[in-house]
């Protein structure tokens, strides 16, 4: 979203969204649905690989495909959709998300699965690119911080809870059932958006210069680099957690689903713990999140001797990563409050690009060097982000 969009006449001529929470919660549901669909292969990697007749590394490319498409589209979403009403655009692309999940559920081979994931990436890029700047149009100034937290909570909760629930459903039925449920959820989310969002017209086109300005801001650039390191490291390792739990820890499908559910619950707790902290002390929240992910990725290869130690490490990982989205986005927002719309769009692009590259790199490492190497790589990447955050402050940046 650009400055022109944020200053549309509808923003100042009437109270935003009549200070109702239903549009904000509808956006949280949309972001939850989008990110759950993106992340679902993490928990279903092995059964998907067996069903499609490809390796775990190849199946992991389903995350790479989605992330790359979303990474390219999300920073430019306001420019790509032009002057179209944002409510109409969001509803249309949530329906496209439903179609993408249905196609994935029907896929007889990896080629069809890849097509479904391309459509998913397109839907995700537009929805997330627009959602990042909708807060000022859905809540008044006094309620804006909570509105933004709720919108982004959909991302955090999906990252840590959507996958375990899908894994549990797949254990009861099969992996395709999880994507059918996501298809139905996308359609339901589109209906909720249509019913609750106010009209969101736009009276000015986006400008590429606003994105370049965000990248030139030193504090924003550091925040984007920290985001890239932690998300890249997380997805190098977490994409292949299921094979680690199967081969190294010797756990069965039901126990793995339970482990990922515990991870998810810890992540929800981390989101709502580190989220408020990031509002007061963004640097501290980022340091805690990155330290926890680094520690967990480094320790998991040595914690597979018993279920209790596996669960302990996954709790640390989940609680820490649960706060990554809100804390890194708050770092970027704190660095340049005047350019929040442009920086949020770029942040979304960096986040998705890091997911894509991380899952791809993790697939290459796990196929050639094994599970211990992939977790070591994850820990090293996240540690680099931790070091950068320790040497920086979000408020210290300025435009170069």
Structure description:
- The chain is mainly α and 400 residues long.
- The protein has one domain: Growth Hormone, Chain: A.
- Helices cover 80% and strands 0% of the residues.
- The protein has 20 helices and no strands.
- The chain starts with a helix and ends in a 10-residue tail after the last helix.
Rg from Cα: 20 Å
- The total number of structural domains is 1
The general outline is globular
User: What portion of residues belong to β-strands?
Assistant: under 5%
CATH superfamily annotation = MFS general substrate transporter like domains
Which class of secondary structure composition applies to the elements? mainly alpha
What do we call the CATH topology?
Growth Hormone, Chain: A
> Largest beta sheet, briefly?
none
| Average pLDDT, all residues | 83
Q: Examine the secondary-structure arrangement and name the CATH architecture.
A: Up-down Bundle
**What letter string, H or E per element, gives the SSE order?**
HHHHHHHHHHHHHHHHHHHH
Query: Count of DSSP helices?
Result: 20
Work out the number of β strands. Answer: 0
Helix content: over 70%
- CATH class term: Mainly Alpha
Distance between the termini: 22 Å
Poorly predicted residue ranges: 1-18
Brief sketch in words of this structure:
The chain is built from 20 helices and no strands. The chain has 400 residues and is mostly helical.
């Amino acid at each position: 979203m650009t400055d022109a969009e944020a200053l549309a006449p509808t923003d100042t001529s009437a109270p935003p969204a009549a200070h109702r929470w239903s549009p904000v919660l509808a956006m949280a549901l949309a972001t939850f649905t989008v990110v759950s669909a993106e992340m679902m292969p993490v928990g279903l990697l092995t059964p998907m690989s067996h069903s499609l007749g490809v390796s775990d590394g190849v199946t992991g490319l389903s995350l790479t495909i989605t992330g790359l498409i979303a990474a390219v589209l999300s920073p430019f979403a306001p420019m790509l959709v032009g002057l179209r009403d944002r409510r109409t655009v969001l509803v249309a692309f949530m329906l496209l998300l439903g179609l993408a999940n249905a196609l994935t559920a029907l896929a007889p081979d990896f080629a069809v699965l890849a097509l479904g994931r391309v459509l998913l990436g397109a839907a995700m890029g537009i929805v997330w690119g627009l959602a990042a700047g909708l807060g000022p149009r859905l809540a008044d100034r006094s309620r804006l911080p909570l509105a933004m937290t709720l919108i982004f909570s959909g991302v955090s909760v999906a990252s840590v809870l959507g996958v375990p629930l899908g894994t549990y459903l797949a254990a009861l039925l099969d992996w395709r059932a999880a994507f059918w449920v996501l298809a139905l959820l996308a359609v339901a989310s589109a209906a909720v958006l249509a019913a609750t969002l106010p009209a969101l017209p736009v009276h000015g086109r986006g400008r590429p210069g606003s994105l370049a300005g965000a990248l030139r801001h030193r504090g924003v650039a550091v925040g984007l680099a920290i985001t890239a390191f932690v998300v890249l490291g997380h997805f190098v390792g977490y994409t292949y957690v299921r094979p680690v739990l199967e081969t190294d820890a010797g756990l069965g499908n039901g126990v793995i689903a339970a482990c990922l559910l515990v991870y998810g619950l810890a992540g929800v707790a981390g989101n709502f713990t580190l989220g408020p902290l990031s509002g007061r002390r963004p640097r501290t929240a980022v340091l805690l999140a990155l330290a926890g992910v680094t520690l967990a990725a480094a320790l998991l290869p040595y914690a597979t001797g018993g279920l209790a130690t596996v669960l302990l490490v996954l709790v640390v990982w989940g609680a820490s990563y649960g706060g990554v989205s809100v804390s890194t986005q708050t770092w970027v927002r704190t660095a340049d409050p005047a350019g929040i719309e442009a920086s949020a769009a770029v942040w979304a692009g960096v986040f998705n690009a890091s997911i894509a590259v991380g899952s791809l790199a993790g697939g290459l490492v796990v196929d050639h060097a094994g599970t211990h190497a992939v977790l070591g790589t994850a820990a090293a990447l996240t540690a680099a982000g931790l070091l950068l955050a320790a040497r920086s402050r979000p408020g210290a940046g300025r435009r170069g």
